[in-house]
Design goal:
The structure is a single chain. By secondary structure, the chain is of the alpha+beta class. It has four helices and eight strands; from the N terminus they run H-E-H-E-E-H-E-E-H-E-E-E. The strands form two sheets. A five-stranded mixed beta sheet has the order 2-4-5-7-6. The longest helix is centred in the middle third of the chain and has 18 residues. The radius of gyration is 16 Å and the shape is globular.
Length: 179
């Protein structure tokens, strides 16, 4: 986290298929979730090859997905989708759980270091996962936000630009579409 905050995220250095990256993390989480009576469902198709800091993005998606698995009750599923954003050179990844959600007043605070909301106080962790995720996503010119689902649970939306729309000049590792 401190390296990300100091702007030391480095330049984009690895070509990766963003959809395959998220699918692989979902697969790993599925194995762990099933051992605890939960499911992980992934939907996404196609290939989005980008040049990124793959380790940073992997960590960001993994933190978000593992949080969702941790807070969704037994017998329910975490749903993960990767899809293009209509009219933009961007990809949206959504992660939805069936957990308790977060008080509206805390929806932005969950991305701050060491934040532990009411539901999080009784679980293991230090309150850094979502802070790291936000910094990693922002380092790639993207955005992340949390929303409560109308039917219960939390939805985390990550939007990452691909191609020439990645912002430059902010010390970010902008993403370039290779294929």
């Amino acid at each position: 986290l401190s390296r990300l905050e100091a702007g030391m995220s480095g330049a984009a250095d690895e070509e990766v298929d963003l959809v395959a990256l998220v699918a692989g993390i979902a697969d790993d989480a599925r194995f762990e979730a099933e051992a605890h009576g939960r499911r992980v469902l992934f939907s996404g198709a196609g290939e989005v090859i980008v040049k990124v800091r793959a380790e940073l993005l992997h960590r960001a998606f993994e933190n978000v997905i593992r949080n969702a698995v941790k807070y969704t009750p037994q017998g329910t599923a975490v749903e993960i989708r990767a899809e293009p954003v209509a009219g933009r050179n961007a990809v949206r990844v959504t992660v939805e759980d069936r957990g308790p959600g977060i008080p509206e007043s805390d929806l932005q605070a969950v991305f701050e270091p060491f934040f532990r909301g009411g539901a999080g106080a009784a679980t293991a962790g230090f309150g850094l996962g979502l802070a790291i995720a936000r910094r990693a996503i922002e380092a790639h010119g993207g955005s992340i936000r949390a929303l409560n689902r109308p039917v219960g649970g939390l939805r985390v939306e990550i939007v990452l630009p691909v191609g020439e729309l990645a912002p430059a000049g902010q010390g970010v590792a902008s993403m370039a579409v290779i294929r």
